[in-house]
């Protein structure tokens, strides 16, 4: 499982806190840690947001809103271990946006895989990626969220359950069904 | 190759690293005698690799990440400044409110002590320095000052002076009558009914 995903504790709770680099007031230190956390996790956060919202919203907007929400309550959390907290905030914000009745479509940034891929080496790979992404996009939002946290972020079931506000058996069911549905949707392509 | 859902779930849990040690051992024993389990495990692995590729393809490129980080950093700084001013203005509001309370309390105390709302006997609510106020000094028969009566206008003061003069005249006449030996009184005034 990923090393940056650990249980976070409210500020003030006893924890194995790392020494804070640099001086400043507690508020300044918190802001600095917060900025550092965002910078370190932004790529993964944007990818998770993209996976959950698909093309129904801009992942930048989702992550930005999640960050803003967290920043309002930054004093409550320990920013030495922010990975899990940031991912939870992003997934929740993405799900909140998906629940909104009206949604405009945004352009898919890399519909055929990464732009910097070598075109000669990746035609088949790109086609596979395109089809898998399209299939993932058709999954119900909770299946998709659970799957991305499990397979992309390597989160344990218990943490996914906490992030999505569900029970562990429920999460296991969502992930299992998501995989089966994807296998079913991609059956023809895989056989070909 | 067809496996039951529970076997598929078992294999997926194995790949997710969520099986207990005992379950891992049991699965390994089964895979030794059931080759289709091993084959299915490979299929699941390749499916998983394809999904992982798809997820990785959703990662933004470096330029997007840089742009986003810059924007996020500016936004955090803006929010921080905003919250600083919110805190500062809250403190200033508190200080201003306390100062206003002190000023109001001080002013009320001053007003109460100056007698505007609670005039001293013989003083007019308009204040002792009011230019329209006319003071009439009352003296006894020996010319000693026994009081000061204030009036809002000269006319009212003159009326008062006239009233007092008339009263004095009446009192003087009565006194003279009381002292006149030619006047015969039938009874003392308090005996008259």
Helix tally of chain A equals 8
Question: What proportion of the residues of chain A form beta strands (DSSP E)?
Answer: under 5%
Radius of gyration of chain A: 18 Å
Structural class of chain B: mainly alpha
Structural class of chain A: mainly alpha
Q: Greatest chain-chain interface?
A: A-B, 49 and 34 residues
| Chain-averaged pLDDT of chain B | 82
Shape of chain A: elongated
Query: What is the domain total for the residues of chain B?
Result: 3
Q: In total, how many beta strands of chain B? A: 2
E-strand count of chain A: 0
Quick one: overall form of chain B?
rod-shaped
Account of the protein in words:
The complex is a heterodimer of chains A (192) and B (193). Chain A is mainly α and 192 residues long. Chain A is built from 8 helices and no strands. In chain B, strand 1 and strand 2 form a beta hairpin. In chain B, helix 1 crosses helix 3 (35-57) and helix 2 packs across helix 3 (35-57). Chain B has 193 residues and is mostly helical. Chain B has a two-stranded antiparallel ribbon. Chain B has 5 helices and 2 strands; from the N terminus they run H-H-H-H-E-E-H. Chain B has 3 domains: 5-58; 64-114; 134-179. Chain B is rod-shaped and about 160 Å long. Chain B starts with a helix and ends in a 14-residue tail after the last helix. Chain A binds chain B through residues 1, 31, 34-35, 38-39, 42-44, 46-47, 50-51, 59-60, 63-64, 67-68, 71-72, 109-110, 113-116, 125, 128-129, 132-133, 136, 147-148, 150-152, 156-157, 172, 175-176, 179-180, 182-183, 186, 190, and chain B through 5, 8-9, 12-13, 16-18, 44, 47-48, 50-61, 64-65, 68-69, 71-73, 75-76, 79-80.
């Amino acid at each position: 499982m990923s090393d940056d995903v650990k249980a976070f504790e409210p500020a003030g709770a006893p924890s194995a806190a790392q020494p804070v680099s640099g001086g400043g007031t507690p508020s300044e230190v918190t802001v600095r840690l917060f900025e550092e956390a965002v910078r370190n996790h932004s790529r993964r956060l944007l990818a998770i947001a993209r996976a959950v919202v698909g093309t129904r919203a801009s992942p930048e907007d989702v992550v930005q809103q999640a960050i803003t929400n967290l920043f309002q309550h930054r004093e409550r959390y320990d920013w030495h271990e922010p990975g899990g907290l940031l991912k939870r905030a992003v997934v929740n914000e993405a799900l909140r946006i998906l629940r909104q009745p009206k949604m405009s479509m945004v352009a898919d940034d890399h519909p055929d895989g990464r732009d910097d891929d070598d075109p000669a080496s990746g035609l088949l790979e790109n086609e596979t990626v395109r089809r898998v992404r399209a299939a993932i996009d058709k999954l119900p939002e909770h299946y998709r969220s659970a799957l991305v946290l499990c397979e992309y972020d390597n989160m344990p079931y218990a943490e996914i359950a906490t992030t999505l506000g569900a029970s562990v058996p429920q999460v296991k069911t969502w992930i299992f069904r998501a995989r089966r549905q994807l296998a079913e949707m991609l059956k023809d392509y895989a056989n070909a | 190759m067809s496996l039951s859902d529970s076997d598929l779930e078992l294999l997926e849990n194995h790949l997710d690293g969520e099986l207990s040690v005992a379950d891992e051992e049991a699965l390994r024993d089964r895979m030794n005698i059931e080759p289709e389990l091993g084959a299915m495990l490979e299929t699941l692995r390749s499916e998983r690799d394809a999904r992982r590729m798809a997820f990785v393809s959703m990662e933004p490129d470096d330029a997007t990440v840089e742009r986003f980080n810059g924007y996020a950093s500016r936004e955090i700084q803006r929010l921080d400044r905003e919250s600083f001013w919110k805190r500062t203005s809250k403190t200033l509001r508190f200080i201003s409110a306390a100062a206003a309370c002190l000023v109001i309390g001080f002013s009320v105390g001053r007003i109460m002590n100056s007698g505007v709302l609670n005039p001293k006997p013989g003083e007019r609510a308009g204040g002792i320095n009011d230019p329209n106020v006319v003071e009439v000094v009352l003296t006894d028969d020996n010319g000693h000052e026994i009081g000061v009566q204030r009036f809002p206008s000269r006319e009212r003061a003159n009326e008062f002076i006239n009233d007092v003069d008339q009263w004095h005249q009446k009192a003087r006449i009565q006194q003279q009558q009381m002292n006149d030996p030619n006047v015969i009184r039938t009874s003392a005034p308090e005996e008259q009914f």
